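Figure 2 data, in text form.
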Amino acid sequence: MDILVKDAHAKINISLDVLGRREDGYHLVRMVMYSVGLCDRLTFEKINDSKGEIILLAKNPDSLNPLVTMDENNLIYKAAKKLYEGYGIRDSVRITLEKNIPVAAGLAGGSTDAAAALKGINELFDLGVSVDDLCAIGKTLGADIPYCVRGGTMLSEGIGEILTPLPDFPKVHIVLAKPACPVSTAEVYKGIDAYDIKADERPDTDGLIEALKTDVVSIEGDKYETFLKKISDCMANVLELVTIPLHPEIGEIKKMMEDNGAVKTMMSGSGPTVFGLFTEKDAAGKAVSVIEESGLAKDIFLTS
């Protein structure tokens, strides 16, 4: 196989709790993450030249965020380099990135691209590296990368590297809206360190996990709405306590989604992207239109 394509899916946090901070500065978290339909796409082409080069290109260079540099500083390149150095790959590879996930959005765009690079290089060169080993390699580049290697619905603990698979999140329509405000993850976590988080401000992660174990096949109509409400009542992101006061437009977007039928709205990661969960596609579409008209969000997506 000389060419293959990998989709790199964005993630949202359907719960996020910060439990403390280690002496090395990393924060201890307990959160549930979920892969959504929005994705970047990476195309891998093997070049049989024995030069061992990693060539990184953009499919849509004119629309790339300036923060995305197509060089050795990109996580895609760094992930590929790890496998090249660790497994003695001799031939070159051309990796073309189609970037769709907004940058610095709380959607793990860089991490999911790196994860796709690990999986793509592993498959293209038939290295036979296990998923566990790919996760271990990814962890050296970023705490979210092991999750992105596995994807799906996962409980994430420790600094994000301890992963436990969970039943899939129920099928819903998802609106993602990223306001233009820049959010500093370091500033948000510094703020949460100083914040006295109350019990009712934290997610009920255990309750969420228990609810996800429900057999939803036979749940229809009003019962399905009730089921989603039970799940949504367990969801929370403690980082909203810091980010929303700094950027009130996040709260405004959440209210727009709620006013247009969202079962639940929440910020993903440290922000600024807001997601809304909808049972009806028409309602989700209306929320997209309202947010677009408001001008509060630069990037808006309707996905699943």
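Caption note: The chain has a mean pLDDT of 93.
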